[in-house]
Amino acid sequence: MKFRTFIIFFLLLGVLPDIYLCTGPAAGALTVWKMCICLPTLGVLVCLPLIGMGKRYTDAVNVFSYLSFIFEAPKFFGCLLAAICLHLIGAGPTVSALVGLGTGIAIAGTFASYIFLVSKHLRVNDLELSFPSLPEGFDGLRICQLSDLHLGSLGRARKYVRRVIDTANALSPELILFTGDLVSFESKEADAYLKDLSRLSAPLGIIAIRGNHDYMMHGPQSEEMRGKDMQRLLDMERSLGWKLLLNGNILLQRGSDRIAIAGVENISVNPFFVPTGGDLPKALEGIPEGTFTILMSHDPSHWRTEVLPASNVELTLSGHTHGLPFKTAGTHLASWRLRESHGVYTEGARVLHVSHGLGSGFAFRLGGFPRVDIITLKRQSN
User: Fold this and answer.
1) Which residue among 2, 125, 307, 337 is buried most deeply as judged by most CB within 10 Å?
2) pLDDT 10s digits, 214-263
3) Distances (CA, A) of 280 to 46, 139, 308, 311, 339
4) How many domains in the chain?
5) 286: buried, middle or exposed (CB in 10 Å: 19+, 13-18, 0-12)?
6) Domain range holding 80?
C-alpha cells in the first residue's frame, strides 16, 4: 500500500466518525467531551508524518497501532452500524446508539484482549515428528524453533524476551533454529536485547535465516541506508555466535550419520515484497544425495510453490504468519486464506512446520498465542 493511500485510508477511518459524532449524537455535548472523541484521531495524525519521514519510526508505528486498533477502528465501525440502523433500517436513535456503542466496545475489547491476554502469554509447543529417512544417530534430536521476535514491537519489554530465552534454554534443546524476523523495521530495535539474546545456547549451536522484515523492506530507509542497516543486523546476529544461512547449508555429523540444515533467503508469493535473492537450488547445493535435510524458509507459501515440486527436502520450518489463517497484506480476494498458516502439514513423508512466532509487526499480536516450539525428531521404523 502506497503511503499516500495509507494516509487517506486512516484519515477516513478517524476523521469521518469524529465529524459524524460531533455534528450528530454529540452535537450538544460539552467541548471537553468532543475533544475526548477527537483525541485518538489527533494522535494518529501526529504519528502519520513521523512514519512518513522515518522519525522515531518504530515508536510511531507502535503508538499508531494502539490508537488505530483500540480507538479508531471501533469508533468507525460503531458509527457505521449506528448510521445504518438509523438511516437505512429505520431504528430509533436510542437503539441505533446502543448498537453502535455495543459494536465499538466489542471491537475494542477484542483488540484489548490480544494486547493483555495473548501478546505476552508465552506457550511451549512440544511436538514429535517421525521420518523413515532420519539417520539413527539423530533419532531423538531435540530442536528448538524460534521465529518472528519482531523486537521493535515489544517496546521495552526485556522481561518478555528474557522469559523467551529462559524458556528455550530450560527445554535443553540440542539445536536452536531461528526462522526469521528478528526485527520489524530497523536494526537498532535489537540493540537493547543483545545481552539477553547472547544467553541463548545449544550444544549444536544456533542457526538463523532472515525473514521479510530483516531486509528492512517495511521501514523508512532509502535503498542505500537499507543495505547498510541489513548488514548491521547481520553483523549483530553473527556477534551473538549465530550461524546465518543465506542460501546456504551446513552438515551435522554424529559418528557415521549426518543431516543437513539448509537456509534460504526469503521467498514469497506476496507481490509487495522486494526481491531478496532467494535461491533454493543454491541453498541445497553441495548436500550429498540422500542426506536427510531440514530447510529453514521464512514464508510457508514457499513450501507448496517450490520446495515440494523442486526438491526432496524432508522437513521445512517456517514462521511469518503469526498463526493467522489469512493474509494481512497483498491480499487478493481469490487467495485471502493461507493454505499453511500454523502447525504441522504433511505431503507423504514430507513435513512443514509453521511456528506461531513470538512477536508481531504491530505493537501487539493479531494471531495465536506466542510459542516456543520444541521439536523432537524420531526415526520411523519400517
Assistant:
1) 307
2) 988 776 667 788 889 999 999 999 999 999 999 999 999 999 999 999 99
3) 43, 26, 11, 9, 21
4) 2
5) exposed
6) 3-118
